[in-house]
From TrEMBL:
InterPro entries: CAP/MinC_C, MinC, MinC_C_sf, MinC_N, Septum_form_inhib_MinC_C. Interacts with MinD and FtsZ. Belongs to the MinC family. This is Probable septum site-determining protein MinC. It comes from Nitrococcus mobilis Nb-231. Residues 14-86 form the Septum formation inhibitor MinC N-terminal domain. Cell division inhibitor that blocks the formation of polar Z ring septums. Rapidly oscillates between the poles of the cell to destabilize FtsZ filaments that have formed before they mature into polar Z rings. Prevents FtsZ polymerization. The keyword Iron does not apply. Keywords: Cell cycle, Cell division, Septation. Residues 136-236 form the Septum formation inhibitor MinC C-terminal domain. It holds the Pfam family MinC_N. Residues 110-135 are annotated as: Disordered.
Amino acid sequence: MAPQIISESRAATFDLKGRMVTLTVLRLSSTDIETLLRQLDERMAAAPDLLRALPLVLDPQVVAAELSASRLAALLVELRRRALVPIALRGEGEDLERLATETGLGILRQLTDSPEPQRHDGSASPSEASSVPGRIVHQPVRSGQQIYARGGDLIVLSSVSPGAELLADGNIHVYGALRGRALAGVQGNTEARIFCQSLNAELIAIAGHYQVSEQIGEADRGRQVQIFLQGDSLYVAPLG
């Protein structure tokens, strides 16, 4: 009997696709790793679930010349011990190349912050307009529910309970009390905003920049507000 010939499959076993994602950047302004970790622990205590398994890009550009690879390696160990996931460095130059090579991290040279100045007069810039219709939710959003408006705005005509989560590629509008989480611009739209009639949120975020409940000023709680991003900071301003 002749031996059976099995042809080798030529089907591709993988493909490579580019994706735009929102990444959290940990910018180092000091080589004092112990103080950095202590302050990071305080921040993580306020939002442990949000930060767990979070991919991090480290930006040591300001201190790269003084930062040794051994100190950076020690920081990476401590970050991983806290269930954070450092994946790359941001920046360029010989010092950054040295740090990346000696710690085994990649480099993201083209990762930038918001390229355009923000508008805070309540008017929309042309890039804020979206051809994708918004998603409208008529009922209250209960604890444990997650609602995502892909490609557009999310409009909630009622209240949002603690433990509920709203996500939108565009803006988020809540015409009731916002007590859960609201994350706008989740695909990196830094011009997205959050509007609500009564702010008592557990967390607010735009394009990966967030504030937890403890960071929201008492003067802004329970008020009609809009939330927008300027640089790396969230701002809360009254409506009207």
